[in-house]
Amino acid sequence: MSGSVSYRFSQRLSHVPASFLGELFRVSSQPDVISFAGGLPDANRFDVEGIRSASEEVFAQEGKTALQYSTTDGYLPLRTYIASRYRSRLGLNADPEDIQIVNGSQQCLDLVAKILVDPGDHVLIERPGYLGAIEAFSYYEPVFDPVQALDGLIGPDPDSVRGLVTDNSPVLWYGIPNSQNPSGMTWSPGIRREIADILDGTDTLLYEDDAFGELFFDGRPREPVKKSLPHQTIMTGSFSKTISPGLRCGWIWAPHPVIEEFNRAKQAADLHSNLLSQMILTRYLETTDIDRRIWETARVYEERCHLMEEIIDDRFPAGTHRTSPEGGMFLMVTLPSGIDSMDVFRQGVSNGVAVMPGSPFYIDRGGGNTIRLNFSTVDLNLITEGMERLSQVIKSLK
Amino acid sequence: MSGSVSYRFSQRLSHVPASFLGELFRVSSQPDVISFAGGLPDANRFDVEGIRSASEEVFAQEGKTALQYSTTDGYLPLRTYIASRYRSRLGLNADPEDIQIVNGSQQCLDLVAKILVDPGDHVLIERPGYLGAIEAFSYYEPVFDPVQALDGLIGPDPDSVRGLVTDNSPVLWYGIPNSQNPSGMTWSPGIRREIADILDGTDTLLYEDDAFGELFFDGRPREPVKKSLPHQTIMTGSFSKTISPGLRCGWIWAPHPVIEEFNRAKQAADLHSNLLSQMILTRYLETTDIDRRIWETARVYEERCHLMEEIIDDRFPAGTHRTSPEGGMFLMVTLPSGIDSMDVFRQGVSNGVAVMPGSPFYIDRGGGNTIRLNFSTVDLNLITEGMERLSQVIKSLK
């Protein structure tokens, strides 16, 4: 019996925070719960027919190739598409050789930490920071240095970044400048320039996670920090929020010495990403007006976000604060002090509404009265109903 | 310019052997080279039409689900299929809850080492050992203990295993009992029982990599070591050799405490595997006589293996030895002493034939006169032509 077997696990597991995401996913899947807890794009926005049609062409024309082993770096026409989109959308000069395909951009978090982070190395991360990054990095046992946001939520505090870079010589500074998860905050152009200036010439690399850069409500791209700091910036992107997460197609674009080590690590980790999906996606991108579709999706999310903001402003108790996302899928609420967001989570589930408590995003255990709300998954009617339930729960806890 | 930027990489990279696989893949792709160097299944055996048809049904019936985020453990109907196949083929009582889907079984190597191996921990591995395992494990800085095969090539030497387990208390003993890569060796039933007895009650886990167990030429399954050592054995499998590697669908079946930590690590590494492919594969498996197709593939490979063996026996110089695979995709040749297999590789490529030098499979730097030959990729005519070229190269080096 397994009870008599002693399993020896690696010491590194003691550095990994207990995960909340599995429980969240289960809760989010209950049919009677309106969930603002997850981070799913709206499946009604998936172009099932367009992707099916692309799939049909791949099978008809290159079936054997699609089903065979492939190279670690990824399908070249897809990497070429990504490079040319960086050029056309953002004026960035990307070489397809410096872009690699991964299983969703989450895999970049794991592999970048694997090639860069030794136990005890310092890693800067926003406060609150993306939970998927905290979990992925933790296996490599860094010391996290949280970077507070500036008042007004226009980006991380440059003075704080400057001090931490000077004092701790971090190997990495991980941030999400566009519509951050969880806060919804977008870095201002001025903050971007300051961060680039601070890092320039140090041996700290910037990890610019751009999962949401295509989903600004105004459709206007923001200039990446990488433009000012090309040789020190690792940039990652994803088709999960714009086209489909089930295909698990993300990418990394990094300076060549970093990409070379990343490639070796990716080969050892899983040889290469699913080729069929890379080929379907490429065919789909080549034959679809993707800009129009993404813009429509962003408008749908904007409407939902604004409705949620209105209800918070109208119905939540005095002393509530919230962020004002310019895009993406999340906003963050700070509840009046004294309200514990874990109580909101538990009471919420009992009352048919799920939220994500904010504290797991705070590596220094703050944020106990914050919650993250997702506005991309459910429609306006369910937002109205769910937010009503939520406001009742919060009032009952006050 | 990037020349002026100093990149700080993790110390762990110094433990990773320089990879030969990228160069091999490039060489294997040259159209004028007949390659026995790679490890590709024959693409002509892929059931493109069957998989296309399964894909069509998934898009028609569950398109939105297939394109959305999913759970880390993998698509339950696929895990249920794998469990029931363990029962029907091997008489093993597998619980779908203890099975997880990965991006090809290579990913298991990375994540198992991640949850089990601390720097300096001992890991037993066959000599020669699977290169993909050596590369994946190396990132976690183990001390490898090579296990010599018994004379007669009926499995690893039990006395050697006993001594290493007692002296070094390895955290893991990694082996491929069925048609090993690179040697083609299959462990005998007696050796399997001895290995299970030696490990039983120790805190060493067996990692039983079963990539080739369905591809025995006689179609007869061999009893896994896991049957005798259920609570100490991690078993992995793959659809890459039997159906399609491009779909990147493999799995791990492990004792529950191990699966729980594996799941956390998989979530941090890439959230979950490609869902579309998991659903296509499940639909395909449910509607196809898979046993017949796999059996036909094994017979094709058998014919190729036997032709290769004949040519080696007839045309290679005296003092050549080879293994006698019972299945799988590889055989191994020991050339007369004095012939360096790196010379065979280089001269071979110049003469239109590629082989895999054996030395990268030897973690103690032996095997300098061995080569691995793949017999699954090319047809009988090309085997005849390529082996003729190879015998000329070897004779010229003698």
Largest interface: A-B, 89 and 89 residues
The CATH class designation of the largest domain in chain A is: Alpha Beta
Low-pLDDT runs of 5+ residues of chain A are none
Q: Can you give the mean pLDDT of chain A?
A: 95
Annotated CATH architecture of the largest domain in chain A: 3-Layer(aba) Sandwich
- Please provide the count of β strands of chain A: 13
Compressed to H and E, one letter per element, the order of chain A equals HEHHEHEHEHEHEEEHHHEEHEEEH
Overall shape of chain A: globular
Q: Taking strands numbered 1, 2, ... along the chain, how are they ordered across the largest sheet of chain A?
A: 2-8-7-6-5-3-4
**Total DSSP helices of chain A:** 12
By CATH, the topology of the largest domain in chain A is Aspartate Aminotransferase, domain 2
Strand content of chain A: 5-15%
Helix/strand/pairing category of chain A: alpha/beta
Annotated CATH homologous superfamily of the largest domain in chain A: Type I PLP-dependent aspartate aminotransferase-like (Major domain)
For the report, how would you describe the main beta sheet of chain A?
7 strands, mixed
Write the topology of this structure.
Two copies of one chain form a homodimer.
Chain A: H1 21-29, E1 34-35, H2 48-67, H3 76-90, E2 99-102, H4 106-116, E3 122-127, H5 131-138, E4 143-148, H6 158-168, E5 172-175, H7 189-199, E6 205-209, E7 233-238, E8 250-253, H8 256-270, H9 275-287, H10 290-315, E9 321-322, E10 330-334, H11 341-350, E11 353-354, E12 356-357, E13 370-374, H12 380-397
Parallel strand pairs in A: 1-11, 3-4, 3-5, 5-6, 6-7
Antiparallel strand pairs in A: 2-8, 7-8, 9-10, 10-13, 12-13
Helix pairs in contact in A: 2-9, 4-5, 4-8, 6-7, 10-12, 11-12
